[in-house]
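Journal club prep — side note

Before the paper discussion, L.F. wants everyone to see what a predicted structure for a comparable chain looks like in token form. Sequence:
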Amino acid sequence: MNRIYATVISAALLYTGLAMAGDFEGDRDMLCASQLVNECLPGTACNMVTAQDVNLPNFFHVDVTDRIITGKHDGGIEASTPIERIEQLDGKLILQGADDGNSNTPDGAGWTMVINANTGSMLLTAAGDGFAVVVSGACMLDG
């Protein structure tokens, strides 16, 4: 594991250990980090890749009130996706949406993000035509 991932994981674990029960219920903005990313293609095993390999930022801001997720890619290009559905279920905050990706290519996907309301641990899945991505990470309250 490289130094950046180790730092992100350590910081997220430290912060989530300090969080109060139920802090991640969607009433406050969150900063989330992509920690481990797996890309799955039909007929092959899933492979660990970087967030950049699947066009995801390493960090992204989740604004549940305004129903939008934003982030910056390595080149400084900003990206956003609307949150179309929000639900609290069994101690988890569940966010869902769909994104066209690059309008010039058929790379659109549906996605679901599940955040543990007590710890901030996060799983993000996205699936499109012929691919799926599974991201594990962590969120911390922003502000």
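L.F.'s comment for the group: Confidence is low (pLDDT under 50) at residues 1-21. Keep this in mind when we get to the figures.
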